[in-house]
Amino acid sequence: MAYSKLVMEHFLKPKNRGIIKNPSGVGTVGNPVCGDLMRVYIKVKKNKADQKIISDIKFETLGCAAAIATSSMVTELAKNKTLLEAEKITNKQVAGALEGLPPIKMHCSNLAASALKDAIRNYFQKNHNLK
Amino acid sequence: MTNKKRIYLDHAATTPVDKRVLKAMVPYFFSKYGNPMSIHSFGVEASFAIDKARKTLANFLNSKTDEIFFTSGSTESNNIVVKGTVKAYYEKFGKNALKPHIITTKFEHHSILNAFKTVEKENLAEVSYLNISKDGLVELEELKAKVKKQNTILVSIVYVNSEIGTVQVIEKIGGLIKMIRKNNIYPLFHTDATQAINYFSCDVLKLGVDLLSFSSHKIYGPKGIGALYFKQGTPIKKLFDGGEQENGLRPGTHNVPGIVGFAKAIEIVSETKKKESIRLIKLRNHLLDKILKEIPDSSLNGSKENRSPNNCNLRFKNIEGESLVLMLDESGIACSTGSACSSSSLQASHVLLSLGLRAEEAHSSLRITLGRNITKHDIEFTIEKLKQSVDKLRKLSGNVLSDYFKKNKVS
After folding, report:
1. Does the ipTM surpass 0.90?
2. B7-14+273-397: what fold?
3. Given A1, A65, A105, which is nearest B323 (Cβ)?
């Protein structure tokens, strides 16, 4: 089992790691039995066109290299996207953007997009504003 | 990566071939390449080499020469033990005989565990798996209680566990089995000594074992060759059909260079065992003590005292093992989370779970296994890199784990 060069890059030098104080939304997925836990923080702002966008995004992940790399990649993909765009990012797209994951990791460790969706849902819940 | 110095700390997975071993093997590829079963001079010299190798192995185990059988490695030896003893039982007592009962531990190597599962699934035997204490040891009382009067035919207990390196009191268990069976043949006693050969006594008479598996590539010999000791008169049947090699128990053309290399590796182990064990214990304890002292929230898995000199298995809170292995690899340090055989599985190690560890603790473990070429300098470098890697990964994981438990109210 070998990871792609891109997975290793994102694993060794992850983008957007850390937390956002007073985030607009937080999403957590995974469980310790599988060994992977991911948390995504988002800050939501309006852009000039009055659309809600993810102006800042950070993650914390306990997990394997695939879990860390997908977390890093999803933050890159979602940054500055509108909430509607960001919501559509799938786990499969994240894996694709990383030049693929070993088959065994596709299921268990490829949850970063789900964490992002969870954060966006959390934002809408907090704002009593279902889209 | 290419020009960087690499430090290999995964000797429980496999070892490099000793140069002296390779040198002994070479002629058996190019000039003495005969098939030992042939009667011409090429065959005779190959056959002579095998006899000599068998004698070397027998001397090492304090057994008779004709009690040593060459196999492809411990996985095959272990399969012959489990399936071959069950087969022999049915051949002797008939298909309608009382179902035999076989016992092993919960933390055996997969070649034993899965062989047990196979005979269980095929409804050929009743199986029991002994619990493991949190120190990584088998409880003799439980073994005593599990052995049944009539139908227990096999007890198989690993000598040194490949993941956590804990050592079982094989000699004591051997004595216990002898007491239980009195003048009967059953139960037979087998130990998988694959990880023990390098550091512990494998005198089969002293240990009181009927069967013992071992392998060449864990002792600085070539891969693809191993052996099974079985005491004369032990009821066991072959698994493969073929020629008359190895008294018919293990047909197939002999791996002559492998056998010669295996014997040379055994010879070197016999000469260096004592000194190397003392050296490694010192080095390993230094590694262990320094890590436990300098890395917060780190703990040792399994007993420190009853442990193989080369093994260090630790867990680090808020770390996932695979990440740690890959980060260390980036610094040129090769170690593992558990046995190499299960690295493509995502499940927490059955060995660590058998100690009573929780899944996230098992996932947070790292196995470092030392060997002949490892120096104090290598160990110091490893400690430094380990500290940095743990720190980096903990910054990535933050409090996700403790928050998860707070939220889900599990502890």
Report:
1. yes
2. Aspartate Aminotransferase, domain 1 (3.90.1150)
3. A65
